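Structure ticket #2291
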Amino acid sequence: TVIVRGEVERPGEYPILADETRLLDVIELAGGLTDQASLSGSRIWHVQSDQNLMAREVERLDSLHYQLISRAEVNLIRDFRRTLRRDFIPVDFVELFGDDEEEVELNNIALFDSLVINIPKKVYHVLVIGAVEQPGYYDFQEDWKYKDYIKFAGGYLKEADKRNVRIMTYERSQFLLARNGLKIQSGDAIYIPEKWLPTFWSTFRMYLGIFLQTATIAILIITNT
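Resolution: structure written out below.
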């Protein structure tokens, strides 16, 4: 069997004939795509028995807004997906539903057991979180760069670490360092960290260490003179 989930008319588990049933056959069994299906974000992966729990946890966390989950859980999504990505099956869903017959045939792969076919919903927003005046979801703008979204979110806070802004990509769940040429896609998240500010005790320990090292050198000099 294979699992079809997301933006199809009848998500669920479907029986197949291994190496005979094709991808389009199963999507048709599931009632076809909805008008909210994101072809560019669609993926197929093989889930082994020891990864089933992992896949369910990713699905649970994905259903929540990033504002409702902890930083640790965001990292968990990234790490889980990195593990699951090892078994991704290369299929281009845009080409699968395109007009080029050769590309359709190439991407209409024969299926085998324990596959997950995930068709996500189109998203039309970008999430800006971290050290900005007004964090939140903002409408996706085709030509905007990450700095445009930050400006629209009220700009950086004074403690923002502007050199280490990160982009969490929606389609591939990558955590990338923001660059001017990096294209922002609908569904991406822009994270602005705060600068590391030393606490009193960390500053005290640093200067104490310097003092002790200096004192030790001075004692050695005096002893040897």
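Closing remark: The CA atoms of residues 41 and 51 lie 21 Å apart.
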